[in-house]
């Protein structure tokens, strides 16, 4: 989940996040170049990632009621950077574990 750190602060659906930025959906058509202060909460992880960012692209969603927004991080403190790295490293390891398990099941069938 994602929220802006300025009132009002609704919650937005975060679709993708990486070390350099994120992609989310919102109802507003944010202008490219807009500066944002972000608060990102990752389910099943303690702590909140706080970052500053700039809107680098927007695209109207296919249902025409929302906008996809791409943000490049322009400021990410060391604590938030460490938390984000741990979250991303864990996601990669979970994906590898699932892939390995599926591979082993296929090997057993041979």
Uncertain runs: none
Instruction: Tell me the overall shape.
Output: globular
Number of strands: 6
Mean of residue pLDDT values: 78
**What helical percentage do the residues reach?**
25-40%
Question: Could you please describe the fold and organization of this structure?
Answer:
The chain is of the alpha+beta class. The chain has one helix and six strands. A six-stranded antiparallel β-barrel has the order 1-2-3-6-5-4. It is globular, with a radius of gyration of 17 Å. The mean pLDDT is 78.
Features:
110 residues, single chain, alpha+beta, 6 strands, six-stranded antiparallel barrel
SSE layout and pairings?
Elements: E1 2-4, E2 11-17, E3 21-26, E4 35-41, E5 48-60, E6 67-76, H1 78-109
Antiparallel strand pairs: 1-2, 1-4, 2-3, 3-6, 4-5, 5-6
In short:
The termini are far apart. The protein is built from one helix and six strands; from the N terminus they run ββββββα. By secondary structure, it is α+β, with helices and mostly antiparallel strands.
């Amino acid at each position: 989940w994602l929220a802006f750190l300025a009132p009002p602060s609704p919650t937005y659906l975060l679709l993708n996040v990486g070390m350099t930025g994120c992609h989310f959906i919102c109802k507003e058509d944010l202008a490219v170049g807009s500066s944002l202060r972000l608060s990102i909460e990752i389910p099943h992880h303690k702590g909140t990632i706080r970052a500053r960012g700039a809107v680098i692209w927007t695209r109207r969603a296919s249902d025409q009621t929302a906008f996809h927004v791409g943000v490049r991080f322009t400021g990410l403190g060391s604590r938030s950077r460490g938390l984000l790295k741990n979250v991303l490293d864990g996601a990669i390891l979970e994906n590898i574990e699932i892939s390995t398990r599926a591979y082993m099941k296929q090997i057993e069938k041979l």
